[in-house]
Write a structure and sequence with these properties.
- This protein has 135 residues and is of the alpha+beta class.
- Among the domains are: 2-40, no CATH class; 47-98.
- Helices cover 34% and strands 12% of the residues.
- The chain has helices at residues 2-23, 82-98, 121-127, and strands spanning 27-32, 35-40, 63-64, 76-77.
- The strands form 2 sheets. The protein has a two-stranded antiparallel sheet. It has a two-stranded antiparallel sheet with strand order 3-4.
- A hairpin with a 2-residue loop joins strand 1 (27-32) and strand 2 (35-40).
- The longest helix has 22 residues, at 2-23.
- The chain is elongated and about 110 Å long.
- The N and C termini lie far apart (96 Å).
Length: 135
């Protein structure tokens, strides 16, 4: 069991070392025949970020979605995620076609209902009875 665990750890350390070398770490210490040696690695230039990165993965964007009320500038999508961008534009187009534009109308004031037979406020007030109970 211990030998198998050491073998797995050894393979993972080799994998990590190769990833670090590929990533451009300056120098690494490697054991050669039991003696540590320094392996010089030339630093690589950092990758230049794309001009218009995809909002999903960061790859170079090839399609820009149309701006809307939630996304004022629009978003860039790569070739893989272009379906997400075009799908959003199609949804916006369907929303605009389904929802009619609403124009607010001025509020309408309706006359208040008065008691039957009353034509003015004074007559309505005279017709109302107030009952006051005394204790």
């Amino acid at each position: 069991m211990r030998a198998a665990a050491l073998l797995v750890v050894s393979r993972k350390l080799d994998e990590i070392r190769s990833l670090l070398v590929a990533g451009g770490v300056g120098s690494l210490t490697a054991a050669v025949n039991g003696a540590p040696t320094v392996v010089a690695v030339s630093p690589t230039a950092a990758p230049v970020p794309p001009k218009n990165p995809c909002v999903q993965c960061g790859r170079p964007g090839v399609y820009r979605s149309k701006p809307n009320q939630f996304n004022k500038t629009g978003s860039w999508f790569c070739r893989i995620h272009i379906v997400l961008g075009t799908g959003g534009d199609l949804e916006d187009q369907m929303d605009r076609s389904l929802q009619p534009t609403m124009v607010p109308s001025p509020p309408q004031v309706s006359p208040q209902a008065s008691p039957p037979g009353a034509s003015t406020l004074a007559e309505a007030m005279m017709g109302a009875q107030v009952v006051v109970e005394e204790n």
